[in-house]
## 1
Amino acid sequence: QSLKIGLIPADGIGKEVIPAARTVLEALGSDIPKPEFIDLLAGWEVFTRSGSALPEETVETLRECDGALFGAVSSPSRSVTGYSSPIVALRKQLDLYANVRPVVSVAATPEEKPAVDLVVVRENTECLYVKQEVLTHTAQGKEARATRLITERASHRIGKMAFDIALGRPRKQVTIIHKSNVLSVTDGLFRETVRGVPAKYPGQYDSVKLEEQIVDSAVYRLIREPEIYDVMVAPNLYGDIISDAAAALVGSLGLVPSVNAGDKFVMGEPVHGSAPDIEGKGIANPIAAIRSAALMLRHLGYAQGADRIDVAVDQVIREGQVLTPDLGGSSSTNDVLNAVLKKM
Ligand code: NAI
Ligand code: MG
């Protein structure tokens, strides 16, 4: 038995951090089935060469994989004919309906609780991101409208994923983020549907505590008292904003991992972009990519392997001897990789 993993470094520092994550997976030995890696193309660079940001072959090969790791794409700031984000397309084509982003700070000692230890579970397929925008010209001037789609089906499956993730965490708390005081129909449906998840699985989620919060006050409290949150579940747009705000709580973007998850496939992806300002210098922080590999394993059911990676990374950060410049250190990507391997 082997674990088939697609590797899509894509652009910029994606090419520097994904190989590091691969090496860490290889170092796990018998904690996971022997990984088999398949290199795949996507992104801006392959678009400029071939005219496609997401070659058909990449998608077809991923369908046969157990999981994947995606680096980062460089998106042009102007609109380019024929180009669209491969990550958005992948989410759609592989039905990766959830974006899961754990944000965890590293405590001074292994015994202490981290100050921030939460997971943002963001719905990934609908809300305003269905991109049905219409511009019309009226007698009073231009008028723009956007459609916001919220379905019971999508709200239920994201809600269920949030409950399942909470079950695997010590605090077992889910907070629904919404604005149903104003958007009573759309956010009302999201809220009601997520609230209704436990009733559909009698007994399964009895240990999970359910809370809810209006999105604006949730952001305020997230910044002032992040310790009150465990699992936050939100529609697409709120989730997008909250997950970046939460990432700011733990310092560098180079630390924060994510996965795009569906029922049949999971793709790890560091939260950061292709970082053109440090590309090719060998100083990109590989930790977000390494933690994304751990998170991918966790979703595939290999918690032991994932724990081994996370514990090693925590030790390296805690000791503070081998850190890349974004964390105030002067070490290279490879130095950090080697430090993690040594702890493992
Ligand atoms: P960015 O995340 O690439 O960089 C922001 C800042 O954080 C830069 O100063 C960068 O050097 C630093 N940084 C990011 N990751 C780091 C790491 N692992 N180690 C050390 N420092 C790190 O965001 P930016 O500059 O706004 O976007 C650059 C390109 O990336 C753009 O083309 C953008 O469209 C794309 N992008 C892609 C994303 C993705 O693939 N999911 C997400 C965000 C941006
Ligand atoms: Mg974002």
## 2
Amino acid sequence: MSALLEVRDLKVHFPVGGGLFGKPAGVVHAVDGVSLTLARNEILAVVGESGCGKSTLARAVLGLTAPTAGDVLLDGESVLGLSDVALRRYRRAVQMVFQDPFESLNPRKTVFATLAQPLRIHGIVPMADLRTEAARLLEAVGLAPGAPYLDRYPHQFSGGQRQRICIARSIAVRPRVIVADEAVSALDISIRAQILALMKTLQGEMGLSYVFITHDLGVVRSLCDRVCVMYLGQIVEEGPTERIFAQPRHPYTAALVEACPLPDPRRARAKAAPPLSGDIPSPLKPPPGCRFHTRCPVARPVCATEPPPERRFAGGQVARCHFAEEAATWPFGRLGAAA
Ligand code: SF4
Ligand code: MG
């Protein structure tokens, strides 16, 4: 499968102020050498705790933040240094859905004005058809019949309905990729499932691919084909969802899996879980060696000095841990067998 979207060794470093005589106090390594690929029709999860660099990665992929190094490619073509026209094409192809549907909708704009703007900018339909197309978009996201909603304002909708409107806006330009940054995190559990089901339906109908950024492994398991696990600006493990859940090969992934509620309460945990203790270290000064060593329950001396190489396993699972081969012996991290 050829990659639709590819991120190559991407780095986003920010100097931060506060040093003496106006000098930067340091450099935040928000994204520090991330590579990933998204195939056509794939739903790829990027998971990790808040502060691990997921949102910065998303912004860089969308061209909203300039990377310090590395590249982003769509259909094999680099999007860095594109002309304005080409960049506009790219921005049409790659759309974003944000976490907070209230903040990302202009409260002074009607739903029609919100949806008409991208339709007009990208010339999707003739001006005379804007209302019909906007109503059709609302119906596509489950707000039917669409026409009566068009003249309402965001505050007249529930959180779930607002997120449907944001999704309608993102699909208005018929994109190929949607980057969803915590798109369901602000919603109630029952609404969350409905929005995920909608996104899955749209994927099939429109041939979309998603980069699904989340801290919620429940979402990953129910929706995503493949997972990249991020820790302190780097991807520490990636692979197909079922493999990552069945046998995580990085202790951090294992801790996340362990903390994730079981899909079936009749299943028991195989072993007791160690809590993931301590905070994520500052990206101003990432720990040497393995970045996870300050929190890793199975760290050994080598971990504090040697950065772990990538270890490859069957099915395309890759882990950056010196001891990934020993994962089956770790006293945590696997979903229990059926009782
Ligand atoms: Fe833990 Fe060492 Fe593996 Fe890092 S390399 S995850 S510290 S065991
Ligand atoms: Mg974030």
## 3
Amino acid sequence: AKRNANEPEFMQAVKEVAETVIPFIEQNKKYQNKMLLERMVEPERVIMFRVTWIDDAGNTQVNRGYRIQMNSAIGPYKGGIRFHPSVNLSILKFLAFEQTFKNSLTTLPMGGGKGGADFDPKGKSDNEIMRFCQSFMTELSKHIGADTDVPAGDIGVGGREVGYMFGQYKRLRNEFTGVLTGKGISFGGSLIRPEATGYGDVYFAQNMLATKGDSFSGKTVVVSGSGNVAQYAIQKATQLGGKVVTASDSSGYIVDADGIDAEKLAYIMEIKNVNYGRISDYVAKYPNAKFVAGKRPWEVKCDIALPCATQNELNGDEAKTLVANGCICVAEGANMPSTPEAIEVFLNAKILFAPGKASNAGGVATSGLEMSQNSLRLSWTSEEVDQRLKDIMANIHAACVKYGTDANGYTDYVKGANVAGFVKVAEAMLAQGIV
Ligand code: NDP
């Protein structure tokens, strides 16, 4: 703990895992005395580097770039790249640590990693984004590769940024490989990858609801965020018969009591993916909706909540409000959106609660499928990828139930996901010796 004392998000993520995994280790002799968890919290490698670029006004800009190569016990490092001004070592180590368990849960051979930069894409021109991506990749290219470390997108990094980074990698290395996932369809991307995290989150919630004989049909759903994950969570929840009434960004949330249907979602996609604008623009076109500035959507009454924006965006008080309003299911699309206090509220209320490392694993799982297609030099159909995604989410759900269900039949998905994720990585680390 001392070593990482100034890394609060990392400590938070480790504590959550340790609280459930240490009791499991204490009951299972084979995992004892090998410093397994102690080794898992220490990244195999951390790379930090200068990223310099020239803005449109001709000024030199300096940012800091990172890649955390956390754990390669079960496969090449794999995890997204985040461009956001809040990026620092603590945030990326928490994400890389979570990623190791998440990737293990997918059943695919992927280790854990994460990277990014404290670059703020907001308000930057397309040329500035390209120059930044090229400069970032000029250094990162020395440390990654299709069999070494395969980054993907995350906050602030979507198809456009992955494309620019892939182009630069190819130029520097003179090789066309599956070194990044989330690529465009014309150059090795997988169908359903853009949809995968949001869809997977909803599939996971569907599996949880089914344990109670319930479904999305007729349910009111509150979603936070309006980026990649939120957009496709809204789409799938709506397709399954739910009514999604909110979307948000860092400026506030919109509430639309009529529900965000396909047409309205297309407008959100235009605001966010084409114009790089604000969610408040929604009310200009749909005046029945209301924009609530500076707040998060958890005060809106719902049956199901899907936090899909960012870490620590749902606190203990907000969790209490959700439960008091009758919410029966929370499935995290973002990474660690619920604070420890919020998780405690959900578990004490014994509602269905899925931690991101289980319920948002569909994104990286489909990235794994993109890697397979690249290696085979084949493309699977949407239906095929979607079916594999559904199967993977059902398998992750089953693993959580196996390791997280108590004598009274209540499933603690936090415990289930942590222990199931731990077991596979631990087995591989034990077999590979003290490295
Ligand atoms: P995007 O950049 O596409 O969208 C992020 C959304 O979250 C935006 O609406 C953004 O609003 C909002 N947001 C970001 N930071 C903050 C903040 N500090 N406070 C409030 N709102 C904020 O990212 P993604 O949709 O890809 O990622 C969302 C979450 O899902 C992250 O936690 C990510 O790690 C996780 N995730 C993503 C995966 C993927 O495949 N993309 C896979 C697994 C997890 P604004 O526009 O105002 O910044």
## 4
Amino acid sequence: KRPAGAPDAALARKVTKVGVVGAGLMASQMALLFARRLEVPVVLTDLDEARLGKGVGHVHAEVDKLLAKGRVSADQANRLKGLVTGSLTKDAFADADFVIEAVFEELSVKRQVFAEVEAVVSPGCVLATNTSSLSLAEMGAALEHPERLVGFHFFNPVAVMPLLEIVKAPSTDDATLATAFAVGRSLKKSSVLVKDAPAFVVNRLLTRFMGEVIAAVDEGTPLETAEHSLDDLGLPMTPFALLQLVGPAVGLHVAETLHAAFPERFGVSANMAKLVASGKPGVYLPDFSLDPEAVALFAGG
Ligand code: 3HC
């Protein structure tokens, strides 16, 4: 069945090679997913050898886990490792049909990335962004071909979460959108089509939920109470574990974007900003017990 709003699948272009800009955790998970489900070469790029090596290393480690669980054979594992390669230059994207960026959430950075990518790819190549909240219209404003820009927003953990937001910018054409839906289907994700609006749809709803949990703590509810009062509601994760998974800096960025767009409806917690400024990865220690220092940042008001 065609997802609501998806154009005719016959318009989709074939994808035979994928480029991923950024080799962070989310980007390397995406690279593995593309290689595994599309069975095409995937090239990761990043700014330096260290980041690139870490990204490719992460892919190999995830492949080894799949092998250990018996999800792939030894041959498939080797093939997957061979399909995902790293490159310091974007020239490796010259014959790619689908390039996705998952770099730092800053409009100027993403614009720069797409200017560099557009200089090397062929005219039919889809330019996809994994942005969680930035405007695609602004991101694509300086592109030569803004009709091939589309939002392709994954959720953490990328390998597991079925949801995929496909964002149509005002300029996105039907062939680009159809290709995005076809790729989403190959990745076995459930794609939803959303408009180019601040934080799209899913993060808008999640930020409302998380914002209320954080506001309750800001207003004096002990963090442990806010964290565990929904335990028996059947949610897959506690609120602060979810914050840890997403990353407090990302959560804060989305909240700031929504606050800028709808100041009366979305606040930005000063305690959240303190947590991010402290550089702490979240409110949990690596052994998943609450970090007293992080908790004190909130409770201190
Ligand atoms: N990477 C790869 N695989 C992972 C993983 C990760 N980070 N975390 C879990 N998995 C895999 C496990 O290996 C396991 O695989 P298996 O079945 O092959 O053994 C499977 O997922 C289930 O894991 P667990 O049994 O350990 O854990 P749970 O059953 O508790 O499920 C969960 C974990 C799927 C993460 C679940 O807790 C969940 O759905 N949580 C909600 C996550 C969520 O809401 N994400 C959206 C965040 S918002 C976002 O990302 C948008 C951005 O723009 C901010």
